[in-house]
Amino acid sequence: MSLEYRIGRNEDLNRALRKFRRKVQRAGIFRDMKRIRYYEKPSEARRRKEKAAARRRRRRQRN
After folding, report:
1. pTM here?
2. How far, in Å, CA of 55 to CA of 58, rounded?
3. Hey, where are the domains in the chain?
């Protein structure tokens, strides 16, 4: 996965860095990096996926 952000001609570097970080966070790259840093047992992965599915179901029922 490649992610890029082009800096505008008069754009401040700090602002560009903030926008890039936000883009990376929304893409979920940091979350994936943290998750794959250590081995996750299959039972833990199944539990995590079930929790995420339950969260999605609850969110859909509210709307």
Report:
1. 0.55
2. 5
3. 13-62
